[in-house]
Amino acid sequence: MIVVRSIEDIHDALTDTCLTIGNFDGVHMGHARLLRRVRERAAATGMLSLAVTFDPHPRRVLLEKNEPPLLTLTEQKLELLDQSGVQVAVLLPFTKALAALAPEDFVREKLVTGLCMREMIIGYDYAFGKGRKGNFELLTALGVKYGFCVERLEPVIIDGAVVSSTRIRDMVQAGEVWDARPLLGRFYQVRGTVVRGRDRGGRLLGFPTANLAPADELVPKPGVYAVWVDVGERIHPGVTNIGYNPTFGNGALSIEVHLLDFTGDLYGQPIRVHFVQRLRSERKFSGVEELSARIREDIRIGRRILAEPEARIA
């Protein structure tokens, strides 16, 4: 997949394109359906398939705050768009000037003239531009005027509700990572770098842990989780604790990853943690002995869960 951050960088290489546009936070199953349809139409008509998205997220510019946390930062979003099979990702810098463009000006200047759009695939609730006036009806009228057609897809329904970034975010924040997987099409993941912690895991408890400094914004609800961990080219089973270490006196929130049957030094290395299932909430134990026994039980349960076929990473 080609990634461009300016329409001018690719305009001269374009002819006719079929595109979809959105924030694509999470690149979830609703987004996957849009991207699949773009690929299908592009292949059927000989056009180029494009996904147009924004950086930073429009909410960050318009509301000038970082809440709610994003499911996927730009690097992972582009990785997932690449996996979707679209040929080009256009990452437009989102500014207040861009937000102030009238919908017709945005369509004419950026999409039709700039990206040679001939077909546009949108979601059931898509709207854009100043005052969010760029809805399906307006796009259809503009298509007649500027020579493109618009197709609107119905929402993707899973477990009786529409798949959305907000719904997935709420599930992750509630610790419902197992239930979030069908909506995402994968287990929710957190990336980061292993940093030095307090060295309690191996020294005091007998279970060495990698202390993760997360790069991602959204961390699941505190508790203990069965996880898969990417280290380099290998994937390891593991158990992760997210919390404040109440047994040792509440501290700052930490993410401590114990890789099962692993030996080696991970300090300074990037890892990726895939959250499979929440095992329990974090709680205060009477001391090291009781906590160690509980961790041993967590590992036993974690192994059993990760051995199940539905818990595997494709």
From TrEMBL:
Keywords noted in UniProt: ATP-binding, FAD, Flavoprotein, FMN, Kinase, Multifunctional enzyme, Nucleotide-binding, Nucleotidyltransferase, Transferase
Catalytic activity: riboflavin + ATP = FMN + ADP + H(+); FMN + ATP + H(+) = FAD + diphosphate
NCBIfam families: PRK05627.1-3 (NF004160), PRK05627.1-5 (NF004162), ribF (TIGR00083)
InterPro entries (alphabetical): FAD_synthase (IPR015864), Riboflavin_kinase (IPR023468), Riboflavin_kinase_bac (IPR002606), Riboflavin_kinase_bac/euk (IPR015865), Riboflavin_kinase_dom_sf (IPR023465), Rossmann-like_a/b/a_fold (IPR014729)
Domain of life of the organism encoding this protein: Bacteria
Pathway(s) where this gene product acts: Cofactor biosynthesis; FAD biosynthesis; FAD from FMN: step 1/1; Cofactor biosynthesis; FMN biosynthesis; FMN from riboflavin (ATP route): step 1/1
Claim: Nucleotide-binding is one of the keywords in the record: yes
Pfam family, one: Flavokinase
EC number of this enzyme: 2.7.1.26, 2.7.7.2
GO MF: ATP binding; FMN adenylyltransferase activity; riboflavin kinase activity
Record-given protein name: Riboflavin biosynthesis protein
Biological role: Catalyzes the phosphorylation of riboflavin to FMN followed by the adenylation of FMN to FAD.
Keyword Phosphoprotein: no
Family stated for the protein in its record: Belongs to the ribF family.
A GO BP entry: FAD biosynthetic process
Annotated ranges, domain Riboflavin kinase: 183-307
